[in-house]
Amino acid sequence: MTKIVHFFYTYLFYLTAKLSLASNVSISSTATIDVLPDGCQNLLQSFANETAKFTLCVVTNARPITVCEKCVNEFNQVFKRYEEIQKLHNNDSEVDCRAVLTNIDRLQVVYASYNYVLDMWEKASCKLCLNGTVFNDKTKGVMIRGDNLDECISKHINNTKLSNSSLCADCKQYYINLTDYYNMYKNENTFCMDVVDLINTTQSDWSYKFKCHESNYDSEWILLVISAIVLLTPVLFYFINWLVSQERSNLLLSQNRWHQGFTNNAASTSGYVVIS
Question: So where does this one cross the membrane (predicted)?
Answer without folding.
Answer: 221-244
